[in-house]
Amino acid sequence: MSIYVNLDEIIKKNNLTSKELADIIGITEANLSILRSNKARAIRFSTLNKLCKVLKCEPGDIIKFIDDDNDGEDNDD
What is the pLDDT tens value at each position of the chain, 77 positions in all? Predict the structure, then answer.
């Protein structure tokens, strides 16, 4: 099971660059890059709130759950 951060598509839809978004929400470009590359281990609610406000979206538009453990079998474990 994995959490996937889907920022690239949403950033493009809003005609922003990563640098512009980082400046607007008050984080470094490096931290935004970590989020965009799915290498983040956590995200602050305050950052998620700012992202949603600026990108005019819902948290579920940014963060997705991918069930990569499912091999086609139903396991009740």
Answer: 699 999 999 999 999 999 999 999 999 999 999 999 999 999 999 999 999 999 999 999 999 999 887 655 555 55
Q: Tokens standing for 33?
A: 């890059």
Distance CA 7, CA 2 (A): 16
pTM: 0.82
Phi, psi of 65 (to 5 degrees): -100, 125
- Per the structure, the complete domain to which residue 47 belongs is given by 2-66
Residue 51 lies inside a defined structural domain of this protein: yes
